[in-house]
Amino acid sequence: MTESNGSTPTTTTPDTALPDWEKRFRAPRVSLPDWAEDAPDRSLFVSNATGTYELYAWDRATGEQRQVTDRPNGTTDGVLSPDGEWIWWFDDKDGDEFGVWRRQPFGGGAAGAEDEFATPGLEASYPAGLALGRDGRTAVVGRSTDEDGTTIHLAVAGTPPTVIYRHRESAGVGDLSHDGSLIAIEHTEHGDAMHSALRVLRPDGTTVAELDDTKGGAEELGLEVLGFAPVEGDTRLLVGHQRRGRWEPLVWDVASGEETDLALDLPGDVSAEWYPDGSGLLVAHGFEARSELFRYDLGSRQLVKVPTPAGCVSGATARPDGSVEYLWSSAAQPSSVRSTTGAVVLDPPGLKSPGSVPVEDVWVAGPGGRIHALVQKPAGTAGPLPTVFDIHGGPTWHDSDSFAAGPAAWVDHGYAVVRVNYRGSTGYGREWTDALKHRVGLIELEDIAAVREWAVASGLADPDRLILTGGSWGGYLTLLGLGVQPDAWALGLAAVPVADYVTAYHDEMEALKAMDRTLLGGTPEEVPERFEASSPLTYVDAVKAPVYISAGVNDPRCPIRQIDNYVKRLEKRGAVHEVYRYDAGHGSLVVDERIKQVRLEMEFVERHLGA
Length: 611
Prior knowledge:
The chain is an alpha+beta fold. It has 10 helices and 37 strands. Helix 1 (20-26) packs antiparallel against helix 2 (405-412).
């Protein structure tokens, strides 16, 4: 057994001499810029330009870009106020996600001065949403703690924050209306953390309207807040619903109660946001691991496609001039922020990321229906190949035809990569997403096993050189798979995993406890047999393959103590394993650290597989 820690030397290798896989991690990347509603030339985005992901302010009128935050472990949670005057950012400790909101002026604070507390009187907590008022003085702040559950506060400059909502179950801030008179929240008071209901409050906390699809039917359905209309005095709220088995938008007038069902004729999940004048919606449609954009005119009810290249749009926004900016990539081409005007919106200087190989679609018959898998392999190669099954996290997420540096690195080294959108994944309808309840982990592994059988039978994968890997929920499924399917895998690489489900439940952040109660039907004390059946620790003595585990010591989602419990069981029987602990939370925002982790995984595979 080998253990190492997270001390990471900075590379001195010239960029031109770096291998392609490392260039992909080091190349500057940017997020889709957020812009201020009343000052659209002012924008906020995230970039890794310094080697750590931080927030940046961008004045489009002058072209000036300024780094807003500078912390050892990075910063990605930030919000630009509607008037463009303030940048709010979440200040936690080394990635533990427990902290306070701070703010600084858009143009920058005083040299050497610490950014001010944005909401004096509110103690540190886990965040549960934030909405800022156009008056520059009002904020709706969601907070989550183990002691109080969820609380939502109205914070007005110069007065103490007041509680307008409180409940033990998880909830969050949805949006604040254009005039500040209405507050939309998502809540799970009914106890199902996978399906929210909606409530609209006045600033004094009294209720204006309720929308709840969790009652009155055979199955509970979820709702989500997509945003109030950006028009003064407008009481329309854009809402996502699941009434036809997938996510779709509707317009709900919270004053009159009228619901306008858009009934868009699109096969996949649909989300939307308002155009700035409130006359139409920018519609994002995701289907079978790809996505596309449309404009929906609310007056004519016409749906018109917004041209984008084939691949995935991972974020989009409509600008005041009617153009659309979007973050696009494909498995073969790195991400870029583009505009329907034809311009590249943000093009970071410096090292450019190499591309990779396109993804191939595979559909496999599984125990719960057809399973969609995405396959990449080195160009010009024929199987059987050493194959990495890279399992996505979530579980309510999905792999797509978008650029990912990790899979591309494995392809560079001669491996095929298979990514499985198992039951529990989003993008294939509500029933597919909700299917894993109560038999958590085991259902996903059934789907992964079916795709594994296809990969071997098709000649793609060498059955003696199969690697199971993933991060977060993917790391959990890796450890569970190594124990439940011990003869199926040659190696396992688990990043920030759930390893001991019972201890993880007791140590994790409150919102995740609510999710686990939903998935498993109760607490470890109420349904001990389900937690036992779904816990990797239950099967640790059956593990045959060498195991590599990486973990953030400040992780509130997959806490370190439950990982240590699993590792001790491996140690007790002398199982081959290595553990790498680093000083961050649920993953790292430092580029050097990410590269180090990939290199350590590849070296582990080389030592034990020789591929």
